[in-house]
Design brief:
Length: about 450
């Protein structure tokens, strides 16, 4: 058994890990694109896939699935195993990725989507499925467990070999933070012999749920006092829906506050709208709190002040309207790291306006526009957007508690919660400081019984 990492080694993007379970057969866990400093001009698959019999998808964020079309182009013809909700989301994500980053030729897009639809195998959580091949072993099997990161997200348990030499390898994918809106927190697996785990926030701990909701409310109330625009860059899947859920709760709790009852919440992303409808479709996966709100007649993802922008023409009209208005508005738009999408047009127009507030609620990767704004904004700096220099006069806020990633406490709990601890932990998907901090934490808690490596 051997594990090779084809991404998410030097940063948090490009997740792709190859598990060789025999000398002639292997499986890929995720196949995402690189973003920010890690991005390159060529997305072609640059590793040998001749032994790859299947792809396992942990969840549908682009940095975990964006290279799937290139995997097809390289000759991959095996099944793509994923959870039922992810199977429903994946074609939407891939279609958008193709249109934004590859081609507008609908014939090429349709051909790729047709291949994708034929390859997808939707699997229930906690249900073992057999990996194809396994000529040298009686059975190699895997199963998904809920990861709480976004709708359909999973960590993966893979059993390789037979007793007494059976090895269980666990790939964390992206683990959700505890007490996030809508989805239940991930539960630790019973055991792992080898664990490949993300480390996005391996060196930080988030605010608590009540504290971050209070912070969001205070920031928005202060931000809209001057009737400015509040811009929230957010991924279309996960973060947008969680923010809507929290905003609905704030508005509901502030029923006697006229300013909250009149504020417009604008989601400017057709993709986000599509994914929000999927969240409603799969509400059986929601946590007990969210289900209770539904039972009480509330609509946490579809409330009165919510407006969804669809066409590009409407998008431009909203920017023009907001630039001339004298009323507050909250705009949620992708991409979450400001690397593309409609948020860039809002930033280009409003970043230099001192009545604007930018609220970052998720991780900003190195080399992304979001990280640059986060870094240079507080010191009155500037950024380049579409080849133009834009001075940052907007106020910049970061609320880390809304990250969909587990913090250091969550990552530690995922391991300490196992009845049988791993003999080997391989740390991926984090900046160097985060990986080193998490490695030291694991070593201090687990001692010499567990080897801890930073993947290369």
């Amino acid at each position: 058994m051997n594990i090779t990492h084809h991404g998410a080694v030097n940063g948090v993007t490009g997740s792709c890990h190859q598990l060789d379970y025999t000398s002639t057969e292997s499986v890929l866990i995720d196949c995402g694109i690189f973003q920010g400093e890690d991005a390159g001009p060529d997305l072609a698959i640059d590793f040998d896939i001749s032994t790859v019999t299947a792809l396992i998808v942990t969840h549908c964020h682009i940095d975990h699935v964006g290279r799937i079309p290139y995997l097809f182009a390289a000759g991959f013809s095996g099944p793509i195993f994923t959870s039922k909700a992810s199977a429903s989301l994946l074609p939407l994500v891939i279609e958008d990725a193709l249109k934004v980053g590859v081609t507008r030729d609908q014939k090429i897009i349709d051909a790729c989507l047709s291949l994708l639809e034929k390859r997808i195998v939707a699997v229930e959580f906690n249900q073992w499925f057999e990996l194809p091949g396994s000529n040298e072993l009686p059975l190699t099997k895997a199963r998904f467990q809920r990861a709480g990161h976004i709708l359909g997200s999973a960590y993966v348990e893979v059993d390789v070999g037979v007793k007494p030499n059976l090895q269980r390898v666990v790939f964390s994918g992206d683990l959700g933070a505890p007490y996030t809106p809508l989805l239940p927190s991930p539960k630790a697996p019973y055991k792992a012999d080898v664990l490949v785990i993300e480390s996005t926030y391996g060196d930080k701990n988030h605010q608590g749920r009540k504290e971050r909701t209070s912070t969001l409310k205070k920031v928005i109330e202060k931000a809209v006092a001057d009737n400015g625009v509040v811009l929230v860059p957010a991924f279309s899947i996960g973060r947008t829906q969680e923010l809507l859920y929290e905003l609905e709760q704030i508005i509901h709790s502030a029923r006697k506050n006229p300013s909250w009852q009149s504020i417009n919440v604008i989601v400017d992303s057709p993709m986000a709208a599509n994914f929000t409808s999927k969240y409603r479709e799969f509400k059986s996966l929601w946590d007990d709190e969210a289900k209770k709100r539904l039972a009480n007649g509330r609509h946490p993802l579809d409330f009165q002040q919510l407006h969804t922008v669809d066409s590009h023409k409407e998008h431009l009209a909203v920017i023009e309207y907001l630039s001339k208005r004298d009323e507050a508005a909250i705009v949620i738009a992708a991409s979450g790291m400001c690397t593309g999408g409609r948020i860039v047009n809002y930033l280009s127009r409003f970043l230099s306006d001192k009545t604007t507030d930018i609220i970052f609620v998720g991780y900003q990767g190195r080399g992304t526009l979001g990280r640059d704004i986060q870094t240079y904004g507080p010191r009155g700096g500037y950024v380049h957007i579409n080849d133009s220099k834009v001075t940052i006069r907007a106020k910049i806020h970061t609320i880390s508690g809304y990250s969909a990633h587990a913090d250091q406490k969550g990552l530690v709990k995922f391991v300490t919660g196992m009845r049988k601890k791993p003999a080997l932990i391989k740390i991926v998907h984090g900046d160097e400081q985060a990986k080193q901090a998490l490695a030291q934490k694991y070593k201090a808690i687990l001692g010499q019984a567990t080897a801890v490596e930073i993947a290369k």
